[in-house]
Amino acid sequence: MSDVKEVVTATQVDSVATTEAKPSRRKFLAAAATGSVGAVAAGFPMISVAQTPITMRWQSTWPAKDIFHEYALDFAKKVNDMSGGRLKIEVLPAGAVVKAFELLDAVSKGTLDGGHGVVAYWYGKNSAVALWGSGPAYGMDPNMVLAWHNYGGGKEILDEIYKSLNLDVQSFLYGPMPTQPFGWFMKPVTKADDMKGVKFRTVGLAVDMYKELGAAVNPLPGAEIVPAMDRGLLDAAEFNNASSDKLLGFPDVAKVCMLQSFHQCSEQFEILFNKKRYDSLSTELKSIIGYAVEASSADMSWKAIDRYSTAYGELQKGGVKFYKTPDAILQGQLAAWDKILAAKSADNPAFVKVNESMKAFAQRAGKWQNDTLVDYKMAYNHYFGSKKG
């Protein structure tokens, strides 16, 4: 909590004169200390109040140069600015305090006051949490998954899971991610059999999906992917988007990127607070954090469109070849996902609860969206298609 200090000097007290008898220094100081000077206040000038800011040390799960770390900094700046300096969040990059996959425990234990990552990284705690980031989400896009989370019961279920794992954290999900590429390869993937035996990197339940396709999967943190590919420890990998992939150095180790995939087509980011630290904040600061989450979600999605599309063009100019993942492989991903759902539901009640809640919301919201959205590709092709030159 903030320390409140009021400084009153003997000179200030003695210099104040009134037409009536002076109030004693003892009475004035006692009143000032309680913040209610009462009748004596009328005879004295207002004295400024200095507040010590609440500081929080955070870490992201991303390298300092990655746009994902920039998103974490963007959120912190919004909170710091809106709080007028009363709350100051400092965000460190992955590895500054703990390794990326150790962030959740570090925040829960209070080693860190908060952090920025993705729920899929906590797959090892309970496979149910990976449903927030992995798989086809019953046809929901990432913004619809956030709608389910915030209005369809997802948030309450995630809080229950964290509590059952004795994790003392306050979680906020935000930032709908665009569909992620199928992966970076040495040569185009043309059929399902091309995945058999491939040493591949992914995370969350996508690990199980690529295993079903025949790959040998290693769930490395983002900063370790390209070095592993460079040393031949990986044949192929996926991370997230054109901007991040470019900055992480994927074009230096592979020149083929397969676009479109169901492994992580509806993911989002997670903002974490140590719950005790969060609960100690004033109602006003908690409101600022809540609104900063919403503002950051919108801002991140807008920035992503600008930066990812720019990086996509730069990668093409740099010699990277992009190919659409064949429909047969996409169908194979869906078939693999059916097996994963059945296997994980067999012995994990939390997985069943998340899956059923998501499915019910998707059936309603998906029908509405599919029925109402116009085909934007038709308009794009009308203006920019090959016949238009």
User: Which structural class matches the secondary elements?
Assistant: alpha/beta
CATH superfamily of the largest domain: Bacterial extracellular solute-binding protein, family 7
Number of helices: 15
Average pLDDT: 89
Please identify, by name, the CATH architecture of the largest domain: 3-Layer(aba) Sandwich
The coarse silhouette is globular
Span from first to last CA? Answer: 63 Å
Order of helices and strands: EHHEEHEHEHHEEEHEHEHHEEHHEHHH
CATH class of the largest domain: Alpha Beta
Low-pLDDT sequence parts: 1-42, 46-50
Helix content estimate = 40-55%
Largest sheet features: 5 strands, mixed
Could you say what the CATH topology of the largest domain is called? D-Maltodextrin-Binding Protein, domain 2
Instruction: Walk across the major sheet and give the strand order.
Output: 4-3-5-12-6
Domain unit count: 3
Which oligomeric state applies?
single chain
Radius of gyration using CA atoms only: 26 Å
Number of strands: 13
Strand % is 5-15%
